[in-house]
């Protein structure tokens, strides 16, 4: 048996899933041992390589996460909150590192992940890129340095197929800004504005979401004061950067004790 960790990719047919499969196959320090799709999907039962219009990989797509996780050391999961919660139980039983890029999770969902993290390593982030995680730290620092005379607005743009808004990255940035200001994020959060909303509430953190075309991901954190603005920005031009971050996280998790970690932990930030 190889000493390199075996990795399972969830949602293997999706754009991110296929990217992850390719990145895992090309990585010298890990190997692909499983690919999972929902029941009834056309790819179930097919070799993942052939399904992706490439050479056979020797790994067959399954709709059974438990089967896929047998003998695996890690799972990378960019799916849906319900699927992620269900998988967290299986990954915890297998003591496999569970790297989660799923967004749109509720406080109840996160509590369930915390329960699973008592038995296994979970690394969860709204965004896996190094640049975005640096932006998160910068946002916190700038928010701490500026008082409420500077209003905070977060604008995010994504492709037309994204189903949740604001993005997980935008929420992560908003939480960092709230932490820097010493605010309760849930009280400061303003999801959208429409109609006669009245003047902007002091201390609020506003969000705007743009959806269109094939935009991979753009995030602006705007600190707007009287006579000046500070804009912190990250633009993703290659979806592979998220996959590479996830691979870094699953390798990092192999040497950690059970717990619920973030990419800031992985990157030492």
Structure, explained:
InterPro entries: DapB_C, DapB_N, DapB_N_CS, DHDPR_bac, NAD(P)-bd_dom_sf. Residues 131-267 form the Dihydrodipicolinate reductase C-terminal domain. It is found in: Cytoplasm. By secondary structure, the chain is an alpha/beta fold. The chain folds into 2 domains: 6-124 and 239-266, Rossmann fold, CATH 3.40.50; 130-236, Dihydrodipicolinate Reductase, domain 2, CATH 3.30.360.10. The chain has helices at 15-26, 48-51, 65-69, 81-94, 107-116, 130-145, 168-181, 185-188, 240-253, 263-266; strands at 6-10, 31-36, 61-62, 74-77, 97-100, 121-124, 151-158, 189-190, 205-211, 217-225, 228-236, 259-261. Helix 4 runs parallel beside helix 5 and helix 6 (130-145) packs parallel to helix 7 (168-181).
Main β-sheet description: 7 strands, parallel
Strand content: 15-25%
Structural class: alpha/beta
Extract low-pLDDT stretches.
none
Oligomer: single chain
Q: What spatial form do the alpha-carbon principal axes imply?
A: elongated
CATH superfamily of the largest domain: NAD(P)-binding Rossmann-like Domain
The helix content, as a percent range, equals 25-40%
Provide the spatial order of strands within the biggest beta sheet. Answer: 3-2-1-4-5-6-12
How far apart, in Å, are the first and last alpha carbons? 35 Å
- The whole-angstrom Rg is 20 Å
For the record, the CATH architecture of the largest domain stands as 3-Layer(aba) Sandwich
* H/E topology pattern: EHEHEHEHEHEHEHHEEEEHEH
The fold-level CATH name of the largest domain is Rossmann fold
What is the β-strand count? 12
| Mean model confidence by pLDDT | 95
Number of domains: 2
CATH class of the largest domain: Alpha Beta
Helix run count: 10
Subunit structure: Homotetramer.
Function: Catalyzes the conversion of 4-hydroxy-tetrahydrodipicolinate (HTPA) to tetrahydrodipicolinate.
Subcellular location: Cytoplasm
Family: Belongs to the DapB family.
